Amino acid sequence: MDEAIAAATERQVPVTVTVRTEKSWINLQSKLLAPRGEHMLLAAPKMREGEVPPEIRPAEKLGLSFKLKHHKHILAVTAVGTDTVNGPEEGPEVLEVCWPTRMHRLQRRAYLRAEVPAGRVVRVSFWLGGCEDEPTGGALDRPVWSARVTNISAGGFQAVAKPDQVWDLDIGETVGVRLAFEAGSESVYADAQLRHLDEVEGRILLGFQFLGLAQDRKGREVLQLVSAKVVEYQHSRNV
After folding, report:
1. How far apart are CA 196 and CA 198, in angstroms?
2. DSSP characters for 158-203?
3. CA angle, residues 141, 210, 64, in degrees to nearest 5
4. What pLDDT, on the 0 to 100 scale, is given for residue 78?
5. What is the DSSP secondary-structure string of 97-109?
6. What is the pLDDT of residues 163-211, one digit of tens each?
7. Quick check: pTM over 0.90?
8. CA–CA separation, 45 vs 85, rounded Å?
């Protein structure tokens, strides 16, 4: 772990900072800058779309992930606070976090998209809010949409639906998702963000990014299952 962090810091690789907000997770963009004793310094996290990021408070639990060589590295850290880098002039604001105690490493091929093989059906149901907010009772003001997954990676998935199966969704929405990989199989739950939505040849294509999978035990179990399915689908395609 120390070697991976040192190499990533030396190269100042981009890092994704995962932050909990109310009942869901959001991803911010940063990069590793330098060690500071038992802590690490990161560039001040920013939103992808230029929006104002949420305040990160001292002692807040965060997720970090970065790609290095053939692996994606996932860490859990605790925020210390914000600071400025001293120099000839007042430096940029940085985020200081505690040195992590453990690291989860995945092969990068798990983050390469794998097409769902012919004859295999993966279904997704999704709703506004996090996975803990799954509506019950079929309330009209809390719809649950459904679609068929066409490709998937450990980072997210693409699904396709008919126009009358999906409505009132905006790009950037956080949703809870329920994935079923085979008929009758156990479903898995996760938080995700809608990253793109397009209508192509009378169908709706939806792209989702997983959020916060590495931040707790249940999320890591989902991540391991999804990664195993990705490798399985890749192998099936190459046979």
Report:
1. 7
2. EEEE-GGG--S--TT-EEEEEEESSTTPPPEEEEEEEEEEEEETTE
3. 130
4. 92
5. EEPPS-EEEEEGG
6. 888 888 888 888 999 999 976 677 899 999 998 999 888 899 999 999 8
7. no
8. 15
